[in-house]
Amino acid sequence: MRIGFFMLAAFVAAVAGSPSFRNMLVLEQRSDVPVGFTKGTPAPAANVLDLRLAIKQNDMAGLEKALFDVSTPGSALYGQHLTKEEVEAFVTPAPESISLIQEWLVANDITAKTISPAGDWIQFSIPVSQANTLLEADFTIFNHDETGTQLTRTLAYSIPATLQESSSNLESRAVPASCNTVVTPACLQALYGIPTTPATQSTNKLGVSGFLDQFANQADLARFLKSFRPDLASTTTFALQTLDGGANTQTPADAGDEANLDTQYTVGIATGVPVTFISVGNKVKDGNLGGFLDIINFLLGEAAPPQVLTTSYGQNEDTISSALAVQLCNAYMQLGARGVSILFASGDGGVAGSQTTTCSKSFLPTFPSGCPFMTSVGATTGNTETAATFSSGGFSNIFARPSYQTANVATFLTALGKTNAGKFNTTGRGFPDVSAQGENVQIVVDTKTGSVAGTSCSSPIFASVISLLNDRLIAAGKSPLGFLNPFLYSAAGAAALNDITTAHRYCFRGDNPGCGTNGFPARAGWDPVTGLGTPNFSKLLTAVGL
Predict the structure, then answer these.
(1) Could you give all domains of the chain from N- to C-terminal order, each with its CATH number?
(2) pLDDT tens digit string along 347-363?
(3) Which residue in the list 28, 64, 120, 262 is annotated as catalytic?
């Protein structure tokens, strides 16, 4: 899981209104420093900041309706995913918004360039001294306590009032007893009924996100396939795309645990599906977002993006500006409307966040799991599946509960009663949505085989199941699944998942402890530990109409 630091985004503005830039209003502010960071000295005045502006998008309500129309079983438009141009028509800012923001920048001797396909993001660079004046901000050096990394951020910023006014068919086979302690592709095929027969549709693609100089080693993949998928040619590999100066160095010692895990459990589970490793480098254009927005804009710019994208990185929700979180979430909505299923690992800190072991009185939700337009994946363990104690889950403090999960979450909260009262947002979007195996997972790194654990295992596993379903759908002349959640939370979708109702034997009352509590319990139906449950391939085939 990615440990990120997203202080208030001093580059988010939504624009509309008449040109008057003297009256400044605070757009966002916070009084506390996120857990794990220490406030240092003022940022040097001459240091140059790369800033971005998010211009008010044209019709996000219309795009949201379109997303649900094409993603909800029973809808007359189900499966009729939007084209790149149709999505951009919803997103492209109004001409007057673009004109007003350009007028403000020109008045401050700033030249910006467009950095998103729909023109809703622009970028410019100015020194700290000018940024402090322009935004009435106080850019400061913050230190990440664990890594020692220093980052320049501000806890508050303002923009002109005129810019702010309009802001915006296989059953599960017998599972070998060894799978209780060592998880391999064969274990997953037996546990979830995943087929070994190769996919047939070359247009069906699976994308794997790569960040933080994590490189996916092809020699390690070959060794992994020889050991755990001997029925596949050991020369089976993945394609590579790069952005932001990304690379995929093949020096054995540079092989990354995360990158190898994600490619080995997509190539090794989604048999025959073309897999692409998308390596995001360190020359990011989205600043605080560390490439999360860059990769989405990169895919939005493609005529045929992969039908499934899995990402095993994330951060605590309180480390990101709510305005910036909404902007990134809206980018996921755009890609979902194009027919792409976006899956993220939910995190490994229980109710204490991404990987955090200490927290305040309130639980820490993770991001982007709180975004309603993607699918969050938690973790399970064991042959008789139970919730993995580290599986992050809870309720967003930024995003309201989406309609597709209203009944499921209400049922859980009623059963929960007063347990953990006051520690979480009872009206927030609940996560994770689903789950898969996340402990004792075997991978190969630098020629050596070993075990790893985390929801970062679970996301590529579930993504591979979705890719195999898409292969069958496309072969039958049907549309891929696209945005998954309306289907997953439907009666047919939920019934096609293995409901996880028990905790790990070492967890007494709650299934994902943290913040000095036992966390949330796994129970019948949806819960904020394992979501709706784990995949059953044959039942899912039936549920999607095959």
Answers:
(1) 24-164 (no CATH), 198-316+328-346+367-490+514-543 (3.40.50.200)
(2) 998 888 887 666 777 89
(3) 262
